[in-house]
Design a protein that fits this description.
- The chain is 45% helix and 16% strand.
- It is an alpha/beta fold.
- It has a five-stranded mixed sheet.
- α3 packs across α6 (141-164) and α4 (85-91) crosses α5.
- It is globular.
Amino acid sequence: MPDWETENGFSGIVCGVDEAGRGPWVGPVVAGAVVFLTREVAPFLLQNLNDSKKLSAKKREKLYALLLNEAEQGNICYGIGLASAAEIDEHNILQATFLAMRRAVEQLSPKPQYALIDGNRLPADFPCQTSCYIGGDTRSYSIAAASIIAKVYRDNLMKDLAQQYPQYGFEKNAGYGTKEHIEALRKYGVTPEHRRSYKPIKELLFNNT
């Protein structure tokens, strides 16, 4: 479970950064960045923060609402950054993820001196110093909070996208290559929100030319 140990290794303002949506075939990749301005936050929040993938959708949404409430009270600040499907196709998913992370951190006020990034790769040209942590969302409260912000925000985006493209089941599959999604692609084709550089989409486009 996360704690403050990672944050305690740094002085100054420290943010946690994580992303959601590298694997799906459609939609943006989303990054969250979170700074705890005080550690005096709702006990339930700290007791339940974890890697967003290890939480149920219901619990993620509850923690997301708590995080937004703490932000309204001035206890945390957060930023959300996106890189579109077109940017993923242009730059590749890793560089697009770093772009989304930069955009998320640039939204933070006050500006952090350090960013704790989930994963094993460090972005170049970042607005502050960076350190990366494999499994960081299970180690650091800040990264865990960022993972929840990114995941719930992206899931909500995909629900909105499902209103525009109801045949694909985006509200359920979040853009991943489920059976329903694949069948819809074969029947209705590729939407403007699909990532054309991803192999299954690229193959489908090639076979339909």
